[in-house]
Prior knowledge:
This protein has helices spanning about 30-55, 65-85, 95-110, 115-120, 125, 135-140, 150-160, 170-175, 180-205, 210-220, 230-250, 285-295, 300-320, 330-350, 350-365, 370-400, 405-430, 440-450, 450-455, 455-465, 475-490, 495-525, 525-530, 530-550, 560-580, 590-595, 605-620, 620-655; strands at about 265, 280-285.
Amino acid sequence: MALAEPLESLQLNKPSAPPERRPAAWRLSKRAVAVGLLLLPLNTYWIGQVEGVWHGLHMTVCSLPMNALLLLILLVSVNQLILRVRPRWAFSQAELLTIYMMLLIQSVFIGHDNLVGLHGVLPAATWYNTSARQWDTLFFQYLPDWLVVKDWEAVKPFYLGGDSFYGSPTVGAWFRVIPAWTAIIFLLFVMVTCLNVLLSKQWAEKERLAYPLVQLPMELTRGGAPPFLQKSFWFGFGIAAAIDLINGLHYLYPNVPHFRVKELDASQFLTEPPWNAIGSTPLRFYPFVIGFAYLLPLDLCNSAWFFYLFGKLQRIVGSMMGWFQYPRFPFQGEQAAGATMAVCLVALWMTRGHLQEVLRKVFLPTRVPHLIADRAESRLYRVTFALFLLCGVALWMICRAAGMSSGIFTAFFLLYFIISTTVTRIRAEIGPPAHSMLFVNPQDILIVHLGAAAVGPQNLSIFALFWWFNRLNRNHPMPTALECFRMAELAGISKVKVWALLSVVALFSVLSCFFLYPALFYRDGAVKAAAEVLWVGQDTFLRLDGWLRNTDVQQPNRLAQGFMVGGFVFALLLSVLRTRFLWFSLHPMGYVLGLSYAVDFYWAALVVTSVIKTVLLRYGGANMYRKALPFFIGLIIGECIVACAWSLLALALHKPMYDAWW
């Protein structure tokens, strides 16, 4: 069942026809921007300390970041009080969404899978180098001094802590890397937002994609009490809140009983061959995800967990047949990478008419009808196209200065933008709770097809330095920016002005991270708590070590190529079958998510929701589905509020607290 149909009575799908349309050039509210700017530093420290240093809560790994959602709920609540006391002072929906969009974009950059990881990479080669590894002779010469921190005196306090960053004589070693990395990150952000501008009209107006992650913020800010505030909502809210409250107390006081919502693993019950080949199979039942999954199309929800189990079945069969003699069997990463290419190809094929129109307006503007709207749109597309090319040239110059060859640069970032487009399409069409896609990245794809020897040690070293921003594809700026554009459009705010605002916020967020994270780690020490910083940094250079030393990856991997092509063809077949047969429900996007580590930690929650949703639709129809919807929204908001409250208490006490997500 499509998402828009059962939500109609609760208006969660109504943003496509907002009750009040303002002119497209409606200005950004100065006071909304001011409030957003006041909240940005607080949000930076909140996420930086909880996620960056303590590796806690993981608010930003969700497609709908808990921290931004909580702050929006608080803003809406305060706004309701203002409406009662001084109605003229109250914020409009557009103003509330402006603040929310600023928080969303900032959370992308400062969050768990973005600049936290970069700060793990910067000093890691020096810290993890040993006499046995001999990295200083293996690849240090390929790492530019302006992209990594090689000064041991600057690296040591980062990991050990107990020092002050500002005023330290080593601060210059960290500031030396800021210009290049800021430029790389900002240029990539501008380029993916350019792609958003080129694609947004087709996806929003012509294909009318659901944009599920936009619906709840739009409803919360619409004005008045949200229609889902019913008794069933408070029932769901109470269940989720109670689970996280009791589990949080258990974290502090182990004698308190708790709900085992995330401790079980199916592998502990399957210890005999060939069943033990399934590996780790978490059984986690997050209330937030159960509620979120209820909003997903049923076919996608079923497809995601089905293909996750399909991947486990491949491992079992491989164990029975003795195929684990081939490293990385069953090549799930390669299958997912091939499927990712297919999803992007299908999306672009459906967009081909619009893209032809865009190219005509860019290169043949004299043939565009002389309407004001057409002329303005043509100007926007020309500026966007030129900006994309200029940023691409600037990025190429930086990468060339780092030693990356032009051919590898082109292939690497072409793959990066293909993957980015697929992630964005998945978010716009189905809005999964999270989308890790760990095994889908340009590095592995190129090494499989070219071999590490052909890529060369210099390019491989830059591959490693770029690993942090494409290793998981969760904190990804492209889908978040597109959702911001959609909210701006529905609220009547100029997309161009929102684009400019988000670019400023992105730049501010990147710079604030460079000034915040080293100071936090100098104080607290990365080795004491910061698991993600340690993992990303160590994994980055261990992978580089493997690329340079391991003979198995020096030449193209024909078997892996076969699985990648197989994944591509299978995903295309799924797309064709869905088009030809209405009864066929398996979704190629579910194939991508199921095999790419995207749903590993919450697949069991998807199964629970699928069963509930199927029963409700079969025996109660859409009417029963709508009646149950507030309960599941209550699960989302209940866990969001209590989980974030524990993290705020952690900040107040400067002590890690219960992590509802991990």
